[in-house]
Amino acid sequence: MKFPKLIFAASLLLTGQALGQAEEAKANWQNSIVLLDVTRNNFNFRIPWDKRAQSISKFGAVIEGKELLTTAAGLANHTLVRIQKGGRGKWTNGEVRWIDYQANLAVIGVEDDTFWEGLAPVRFTDTKSLKENLQVIRWRGGNIEKRAAEFSRFSVADANFNQAPRIELKASSEIEGAGKAELMVSKDQVVGLVASKSGSTCSVIPATFITDVLKLRKADQYKGLGYFDFIWQPASNPAVTDYFKLDGNPRGVLVIKPGKKSVLRLHDIILEVAGFPIDIQGDYLDPDCGHVIMEYLACRNKWAGDILKLKIWRDGKVQDIDYKLPKADFSDNLVMDRPNDVEPTYLIVGGLVFVPLSAEFLSSWGGDWQRSAPFRLVFYNNQKAKKDQKSLVVLSLVLPDFYNIGYQQRSSQNIVIEKANGNLISTLEDLAKALDKPKDGFHILEFKKGSSLGKIILDAEKLEQANDRISQRYGIQSLQKLK
Prior knowledge:
The protein is an alpha+beta fold. It has helices spanning 2-26, 207-218, 238-243, 359-363, 369-372, 375-380, 428-434, 463-474; strands spanning 33-43, 51-63, 67-70, 78-85, 92-100, 105-109, 134-140, 143-156, 167-173, 182-186, 189-198, 201-206, 231-234, 253-257, 269-273, 276-277, 283-286, 290-293, 307-314, 317-324, 346-349, 352-356, 393-398, 415-420, 423-424, 442-447, 455-459, 480-481. A hairpin with a 7-residue loop joins strand 1 and strand 2 (51-63).
């Protein structure tokens, strides 16, 4: 009597394996993945007059409407996009039709109809299938390479610079050199695009986020990502909630700096966002992603301009307020968030190179800029703009010349200027105007308190000669680019 049951169980197992193999067989990834070769102008924001051509290889996925999806990374200041299908052979010119750097997504089109012959759009998975049977797929050496991946967790991407706090899937894989928009797949469906890789951990833009963005773009209703423009701190110390006489168990986070136009006030305690209770660490329990930081609620099925319902503790009672999500452009940050396709600006004064303190400038220290960039400059990244000083200007380096002798040491680099000839400096334009009015034949440059160098004094009468000499010596055609 037991044999039929065993036979039946074995039959089910074989049937399941066969179905799995059939699903895998359906995924002809060579017909849905292309190679991208991007040529772009690569600027050095620490040597801002230096511009060099750079070639970047990455991947694209075929989507509906005869278009390709890839990440936005590496497309800034592009001059040419070429596409190759089949992993080898002919290259075809493409064009970037849509790009959003905050979402880190871009759509590329190809006008040549023959290019699309034999290609098939990918299918994106739903929320329930983001964790199982993961593989990373890409072209390599003219063949499709597949490497296993294992789901780790969901995390909210760091909101530094021009990136809104969107959700990312973290998965471990031994695949080398990933992070160029490779596909992460589960059987015959796409789980997401690999945006970056650190060690063995891949950061993946999940399919659920991608499909939401693509639907809105297709309907011409995409408004961009929103973000929280206020600063909060955890209420993990019970004294915080006790001090503000919050009833019940400790919960929520304390607002320590409201946004400029925010309905929130200083020392509001945020208890709930969009109906989700916030714990004392600033996390909430997401039904799809588990415990994640509350910043994700600015992007969870919400977009710039949408209203979020907040429950807060204010003036000794619980209140409900409507919070309108600002667009994620970070324009009120002290560290400038410039458009991605804009060349660097600078002003060279007697060999002293001044640049805006911008996201790109800090990023020039590499992916781990929070650790490797000068501490004081990193500190400013967390500050909001002030009424009298909306941005900052940095003395990035000194080009040696006998005119600036005494200021050529490393202590004269990467310090923030405060005033020039008595005028407060926020922009390069401010600095240029201040230099038109020397004091008693000298330019007096003063730097932020705590800088390794407090003041620089330059001879105004000899500045023009020094500029001509430095321009010729270092091969710099123009000593200023203000816009």
